[in-house]
Write a structure and sequence with these properties.
Structural class: mainly alpha
Largest sheet: none
Number of strands: 0
Helix content: 55-70%
Radius of gyration: 18 Å
Strand content: under 5%
Order of helices and strands: HHHHH
Length: 106
């Protein structure tokens, strides 16, 4: 019985790693350029992670917030916000070849 429980833990770990390596980069690609502002687009991106975490063994009865907490994952929206802030920092402090005065004009 312990072997079966251990197998599910290992499988969950491998699935989570596969998600983080193969799926999440596709969901987050070009999020700085294409930052969805419509609620339906934000929900569609978040739904990918919500569905994946729900299908992990032992997580189907937990809420989305509980699953994220147990897996130590941030929301997709939070990761996009972090990426946006990182790019703003790089632009403002000259880490990328872009003129901040042209980027933040009115």
């Amino acid at each position: 019985m312990l072997f079966i429980a251990h197998s599910f833990l290992v499988m969950s770990s491998l699935l989570l790693r596969a998600y983080m390596v193969y799926v999440r980069p596709l969901v987050e690609s070009n999020s700085v350029v294409w930052s969805p502002c419509l609620k339906q687009d934000i929900d569609a991106l978040e739904r990918v992670q919500r569905r994946f975490t729900k299908r992990l063994p032992g997580f189907n009865n937990s809420t989305y917030a509980e699953r994220l907490s147990r897996l130590n994952l941030p929301t997709v929206e939070l990761r996009r916000l972090h990426s946006d802030l990182t790019w703003c920092y790089k632009i403002l402090f000259g880490c990328v070849d872009m003129h901040s005065d042209e980027f933040f004009c009115s």
